[in-house]
Specification:
CATH architecture of one domain: 3-Layer(aba) Sandwich
Strand content: 15-25%
Number of helices: 15
Number of strands: 16
Shape: globular
């Protein structure tokens, strides 16, 4: 296998040839393997080729794209976690997984430098990101905080004493896709017909897929689909192992198991995004095979199973400190007070008000995105952001 120089990454926009080669060489592949190639292939993967995929000129929006106020509020939680860890306060690991070019960490550090200078001084920043293009931009993005960067790489550092956080990481990890039939559970694979990718069904690629559904109490009726994110559970286990003492903070969109395994999600949640538009769905609302099209040019995502993530964290020795809508998390951190202080008519105040409303109003990012907070070796503190610890819609 050969690897292209960074300046030529943007010349390749399709992972299709690599996927077809894999299928022709070894037969149909799992959806998880398809997503791994489409999203993370080092030469043609969707995330590998660009430093940033979100925002107005990207394919989707994240809370970070709304503006620096999101990082400003998260910094309040980070500072509280730093204080809760106690002495020595001059050693504090701040680890962002799925960090991209480092914008969220920069926004957090911007605020800490002003409101919590001792915390900012103690922070040793570690950015975890698979995309070489994004990693190449991190120092420039961090700007005056570049000296804080202790490491940048593809794997979680360890041991970590501090905070590991991930914003919209788990939803982008490869998933297995299963469907219930009258004679039992089947797995959806990706096959090729000429140069076109198509679905096919086969026996499960691993027995743990069936066991995983039973483990979380999922119930599928004949014809229903569901995604099983083994990679997310593996990542939670890895984070728990490297965290010697401190906190794990997950911000992502998803639902609890009971909602994902219900008539409202019977077609599954796997979708492809391009230009802020989901790939066309069938009349019954199911995605059809649109998510197979243009691999490497579209984001592919699925809802996170919050129940599975929480259970995995607890099985790996973490203590659940809160599971709640992002709205309530940000309100607990002072979003309402920030909104009240941004009542002026100036353009900066108007922008902050719009950003805060986007982040917390029902029906937007505030209700679709959830927050899961865990602790290890810190007891069961009442975190400021988890004042509404069980508020999930």
């Amino acid at each position: 296998m050969f690897f292209l120089k960074p300046e030529t990454w943007n010349l390749i926009v399709s992972a299709l040839p690599f996927i077809l080669d894999r299928i022709r060489g070894s037969g149909p592949i799992t959806v998880a393997e398809f997503m791994e190639l489409a999203l993370y292939h080092p030469e043609a993967g969707y995330y590998a080729r660009e430093a940033r995929r979100s925002g107005r000129h990207g394919d989707f929006y994240t809370s970070v794209d709304v503006g620096p106020v999101f990082g400003e509020l998260v910094s309040v939680q980070v500072a509280e976690m730093w204080r809760l860890l106690g002495e020595p306060r001059d050693l504090f690991d701040l680890v962002e997984a799925g960090a991209g070019d480092g914008r969220l960490s920069r926004d957090i550090l911007d605020r800490l430098a002003v409101s919590e200078p001792d915390c900012h001084k103690a922070a040793r920043l570690h950015l975890v990101e698979r995309s070489p293009a994004a990693r190449a931009e991190q120092v420039r993005t961090l700007g005056p905080h570049a000296a804080t960067l202790a490491s940048s790489g593809e794997q979680l550092p360890g041991p970590v004493s501090g905070v590991i956080f991930a914003n919209e990481l788990l939803d982008a990890l490869p998933v297995h896709l299963v469907v219930m039939r009258e004679d039992g559970l089947r797995e959806v694979f990706v096959d090729a017909e000429g140069d076109h990718l198509v679905e096919c069904e086969r026996a499960l690629s691993a027995p743990c897929l069936h066991a995983g559904i039973e483990w979380i109490g999922g119930r599928l009726q004949p014809g229903w689909r569901a995604e099983i994110n083994l990679a997310a559970l593996d990542w939670i286990g890895a984070a728990a192992r490297v965290l010697s003492r401190g906190f794990l903070l997950i911000l992502d969109y998803g639902h609890e198991t009971a909602e994902l395994y219900s008539p409202s999600h019977s077609a599954g949640s796997l979708r492809a995004l391009k230009g802020h538009t989901f790939a066309g769905a069938l009349p019954d609302g199911s995605p059809g095979e649109a998510w197979l099209q243009e691999p490497g040019e579209r984001d592919i995502t699925s809802h996170v199973d919050l129940t599975a993530v929480q259970r995995a964290a607890e099985q790996h020795g973490l203590e659940t400190l809160g599971v709640l809508d992002q709205s309530y998390f940000l309100i607990g951190l002072g979003a309402a007070e920030l909104l009240a202080r941004s009542s002026g008519a100036g353009i900066s105040d108007v922008r902050r008000r719009m950003a805060l409303k986007t982040l917390v109003l029902p029906g937007g990012l505030g209700s679709t995105h959830k927050v899961l907070a865990f602790g290890k070796g810190v007891g069961r503190p009442s975190l400021q952001g988890c004042s509404y610890r069980t508020r999930v819609t």
